[in-house]
Amino acid sequence: MHEAEDLGADIVFNWDHFYPLYGPDDDKHLECWTMLGAWAEQTSRVQLGALVTCNSYRNPDLLADMARTVDNISNGRLIFGIGAGWFQRDYDEYGYPFGTAGSRLDALAEALPRVQRRWARLNPPPTRQIPVLIGGGGERKTLRLVAAHADMWHSFGDVGTVRRKSAILAEHCADVGRDPAEIERSVGVQGDPARTGPALLDAGITLFTVGVGGPQYDLAGLRRWVAWRDSL
Length: 232
Fold this sequence. Notes:
Elements: H1 2-7, E1 11-14, H2 32-42, E2 47-50, E3 53-54, H3 60-73, E4 78-83, H4 88-94, H5 101-121, E5 132-135, H6 142-149, E6 152-155, H7 159-176, E7 184-189, H8 193-202, E8 205-210, H9 220-231
Parallel strand pairs: 1-2, 2-4, 3-4, 4-5, 5-6, 6-7, 7-8
């Protein structure tokens, strides 16, 4: 995290899972929001957040309070990344009802206004209007939630996928009376930035997220993408 900040990363994300998504099933792993509070204290420049926190794991009002707290600790550097959730082992091991993809998305739709209302009532309030990032690519429900609530949208896919889903997002924005240009696009990237970066940038992507693994972190890819960014 310190090295990523020193290298020039703009944002440092963790994830909100209770077990690793790859490698040994029970490898070392720590809780997301406790970690973000520590990062807020230990960094000074980078923005930080979860990519993304799972709506199912915490009461929305509590989650809003936790986010407000990290925002204050960091002096206004939190990005509130959130999604509907999908990793069934987390749910089963911690006793959360897994439901269906549809029910989890419905719960997210109900939670987002609650988070905003709680932020408006907290004392002290957030230091700024906390940017909301929604992760996911579901074309009927997720992208409509992005249009209605998000400042940032994160997805995965090649340039063709990004362009197609961005067009669908624009349709949802028209339905809710919103300018799609207000929503920053983010995508997960890997490989050679000189090959894939320009086309993604032309497709409207301005936030490129680079996985660094863990618990043994490899920042080689981050170095390449930061160097490409700085060369523009």
